[in-house]
Amino acid sequence: MVTAVAINSHGGITVSESVVIDGHEDNLPRVVTHAHSDHTKYLSRSSRNSPMIIGTPITLEWLKILGFKLSDSVLQPINYGEVLRLPSGTLRLEKALHIPGTAQVVFDSDEGWRAVYTSDFKKPGSHTPVISSDVLIIDAVYGNPEFRRDFDDYIEIVLVDLVKELLASGSVYIHGYHGKNQEVMMLLRSEGIDAPFILDHKQYALTRAMEHHGLRVRDYHHVGTEEADEIMRDGWFVYFTHFFRRVECDGFGTHVKLSGWEFKKPMRQLGRRWWLVAFSDHSDFQGLVDYVRLSRPKEVIVNCKRSTDGYLFAKYVEKKLGVKTYLLP
User: Fold this and answer.
1) CA within 13 Å, CB half, 213
2) How far apart are alpha carbons 223 and 252 in whole angstroms?
């Protein structure tokens, strides 16, 4: 069955010569599992040379906001659980807890075998459905056994408590990647934080599109508008911006950076006004192993183009779980 799966030089996954996932191949339908840049390589080429670009409605709308020029004529939005017929099998998307709109890809071949690509995910079983498979394709983003976060089960509580504490002294500036910020917005609202949100232009556009598809945030404002200016003068708000963008804050503001590349402590103080919280939208090493164990595949393919120490992960899966594992490309 592994012979039915190929991974090209930029990480695109071809299944049964019927579809390519998170990469480009001329004349094949393409699935985009979510809007992060390592999953959208050569998307402009796909918009010209692919008969169809498949994704969840949120993902396809976000791609346009992020600057991809995509013709509506090639876009094929499908919801979780919806089945799409392809030449040698059927394809459907299933939810993955990562950023809004993220999807796992399930390909059921006409020959009776199933390939599953997890895309990026976290909390398998409890929040990300684990799908049984014959061939499981996985990105071992944290493929080294040392990449374990023992606090993953309660990191949301750590972040919420920190933001509540910091808001008691003034405004809070949160720096995260596209999608992760939106996940945190929904988390803070669900935990009763009602401070108004101030968003830079791209964060605002992404959030507005997300709300069009039913994921609610409430009370968010575009920076530079009269409403936002008035809120910022009052000095009590949460400001969301990109991880690498530095924003000057008022005299009472504090900054929180969100990073998954922290494994020793759930949070640490970087300076007088700067904190880092180990809030990741990827499973750590143990989460990756748990998905493989629960999926019970006959074969595992580790996508080396989007993995760290993929060979260590493959070695562990073969030794500890007894599943034949391949490294591609």
Assistant:
1) 18
2) 18
Q: pLDDT tens digits for 170-189?
A: 999 999 999 999 999 999 99
Residue ranges and CATH numbers for the domains of the chain are: 2-146+283-328 (3.60.15.10), 152-277 (3.40.50.10890)
According to DSSP, the residues that pair with 85 across neighbouring strands are 90
CA angle, 197 as apex, 194 and 198 as ends, to 5°? 160
CB-facing half-sphere around the CA of 63: CA atoms within 13 A: 32
CA neighbor of 49 nearest in space, from 69, 73, 25, 68: 25
The CA distances from residue 120 to 36, 192, 267, in Å, are: 10, 28, 23
| Per-residue pLDDT tens over the stretch 114-167 | 999 999 999 999 999 999 999 999 999 999 999 999 999 999 999 999 999 999
Return the amino acid letter for 71.
Answer: S
